[in-house]
Amino acid sequence: MSRNDLMSDVFTMIRNAVMAKKDTVDVPSSRPVKAIIEILKKENYIENLKLIEDKKQGIVRVYLKYMQGGKSAIRNLKRISTPGLRIYVKHTKIPSVLRGRGLVIISTPKGIISGVQAKEEKLGGEIIGYVW
Fold first, then answer.
1. So what's the pLDDT on residue 1?
2. pTM above 0.85, yes or no
3. How far apart are CA 120 and CA 1, in angstroms?
4. Which DSSP letter does residue 51 get?
5. Rounded CA gap, 13 and 107, in Å?
6. Closest Cα to residue 40, out of 76, 70, 6, 5?
7. Residue of 2, 110, 10 whose CA lies nearest to 126
């Protein structure tokens, strides 16, 4: 797999694991990936995460969350800003996903945070992706 856009690769790995009804998925570790996974845990889209050290960059093991009836807490993940087309917004223009039932992940000067938190702190930035 090509590693030109690690965020898109991580979103695809999680999306594929959810469609295959896997309990866990291992994704390559980096600071932005850890921050995104932490946001997903805080917003109750995943059960837990575990950092696994290896001799290279490390691995983040993501424990996926399923509701009763076998439905995943994550229905979809969508990458918005890509390396070829960056999407930036001001804090007043942060979009809502599914009328507030989804999650916007934004990279701000104070780090990677959720859209709700960015609105509260009045921070704009690059839209990384949507989760619903």
1. 54
2. yes
3. 38
4. E
5. 21
6. 76
7. 110
pLDDT over 90, % of the chain: 92
Q: Which CATH number fits domain 77-131: 3.30.1490.10, 3.40.50.2300, 2.30.110.10, 3.30.110.40?
A: 3.30.1490.10
* 3-state class (DSSP) for residue 105: strand
Q: Which helix (H) or strand (E) holds 57?
A: none
- Please enumerate in sequence order all residues whose Cβ is within 8 A of that of 77, keeping only pairs 6 or more positions apart, or say none: 11, 14, 15, 129, 130, 131
Distance, in Å, from the CA atom of 46 to the CA atom of 24, rounded to the nearest integer, reads 10
Which residue is listed with tokens 């942060």?
94
Which residue(s) pair with 104 in the sheet? 130
